[in-house]
Design a protein that fits this description.
The complex is a heterodimer of chains A (182) and B (205). Chain A is built from eight helices and no strands. Chain A has 182 residues and is mainly α. The N and C termini of chain A lie far apart (67 Å). In chain B, strand 2 and strand 3 form a beta hairpin. Classes of the chains: A mainly alpha (182), B alpha/beta (205).
């Protein structure tokens, strides 16, 4: 049997991507820790032939359900977000996380488990209690919805930035003075 | 391997981007949480020394394995997973004392290791032999025959060689202080050069 550390090294990033997609960046890190802690506990009993990726995603899926249930029981008061600086996404990413959050659960899970974890539709269906065909549809609808609601940052940076009314661009030959005028 | 369909490249990059520093912090936190929950059966780390990188592994009882680079650390960890438990995490914090004492030893500032040891990987006569080794003082050597006599079986010279050759805790349990009766070094799991370096270090300090 592989040392558990090897699973963390090989699949840690994948599990973090999955947790972020399903729960959003704020709650992803706690879900990651709980997923690997549960996995560590059960690991000695895992059959040798088991697919470890699918197993880890199954645990992450259950943890996400737990978190979502807790959230609906004790919603976080507005303005009291947990202090997790490392989880704070850059501002331009917030639109993306909002778009992912707005997806129907099935579509969000299909994107996370199929595209981010790389599991085949059949495995995703087993984890979410669906059918491979429904997962295929949810994954493709999810991508379409994301494309519609979220403009990829790469494209956004190329788009002209709307300027405030009356704004006059400074001539490029004049360097911006470092000392601020007050 | 699962092939990810080309469509996945349409996923916005931030969904994939993972900051390695965040992952490292999560791994450190996991090791601490696992230890607290009693789920960490084996901690390990590595330490750079003049005789190469050493792997150190510990249970909650103490240091259980020291392995040379040439033993292949991945292979050693896999053996430990089979012999002790697969609940193994890289957890330098749990081996800080061992690392510090080894650093001191290689700097010539430590003559005796004061670490809890877990002897579970040495059984029977081999264990009796190994238990005698810390009594060979720093900078001294004994022959395989002397060690056999000290372990109560003067004829078991070959078995002493085997016990030293399979010492799960080399350097810390000083099998390098056992040499041939003719004064030549004899074999060493870490290589003859490593044995020579350790004995030279101890002779000079």
């Amino acid at each position: 049997m592989k040392p558990f550390e090897q699973l963390v090294t090989e699949h840690g990033a994948m599990v973090l991507r999955v947790c972020r997609a399903v729960l959003g960046p704020d709650e992803a890190e706690d879900a990651w820790s709980e997923t690997f802690l549960s996995a560590l506990k059960a690991y000695p009993e895992l059959p040798e032939e088991a697919n470890t990726e699918a197993w880890l995603v199954t645990i992450a899926h259950r943890k996400a359900i737990d978190v979502t249930r807790k959230r609906s029981r004790n919603p976080l008061p507005l303005g009291e977000l947990p202090d997790r600086p490392s989880a704070d996404p850059p501002e331009e990413d917030q639109d993306l996380w909002d778009a992912v959050k707005a997806l129907p659960d099935r579509q969000r899970e299909a994107i996370a488990y199929h595209y981010l974890a790389g599991l085949p539709h059949r495995e995703v269906a087993a984890i979410t209690g669906s059918t491979p065909e429904a997962v295929r549809r949810a994954a493709s609808d999810g991508i379409k919805n994301l494309r519609r609601t979220y403009l990829a940052p790469a494209a956004a940076s190329l788009a002209p930035v709307p300027l405030p009314v009356g704004f006059v661009p400074a001539p490029t030959s004049i360097s911006v003075s470092k000392g601020e005028t007050r | 391997m699962n092939s990810v369909e080309p469509e996945s490249s349409a996923l916005p990059a931030p969904l994939r981007a993972v900051d390695p520093a965040v992952l490292r912090a999560l791994q450190t936190h996991l090791a601490a949480a696992a230890a607290e929950a009693g789920l960490l059966d084996l901690s390990y780390t590595t330490v750079d020394t003049p005789i190469g990188k050493l792997l150190l592994a510990a249970t909650d009882q103490g240091l259980v394995r020291v392995a040379f680079d040439r033993e292949n650390h991945d292979a050693v960890l896999e053996q430990l997973a089979g012999k002790i438990s697969p609940r193994i995490l890289h957890s330098p914090a749990r081996l800080a004392a061992a690392v510090r004492q080894l650093d001191e030893y290689f700097a010539g500032r430590r003559r005796v290791f004061e670490l809890p040891l877990d002897w579970r990987l040495a059984k029977g006569f081999r264990r009796e032999v190994l238990a005698h080794l810390p009594q060979i003082a720093y900078g001294q050597t004994e022959s395989y025959a002397q060690v056999a006599a000290a372990a109560g079986s003067p004829k078991a010279v070959r078995a002493v060689g085997t016990a030293c050759g399979t010492n799960p805790l080399p350097v810390v349990v000083p099998c390098h202080r056992v040499v041939r009766s003719d004064g030549s070094f004899g074999g060493y799991l870490g290589g003859t050069e490593a044995k020579q370096l350790l004995l030279t270090l101890e002779a000079a300090a």
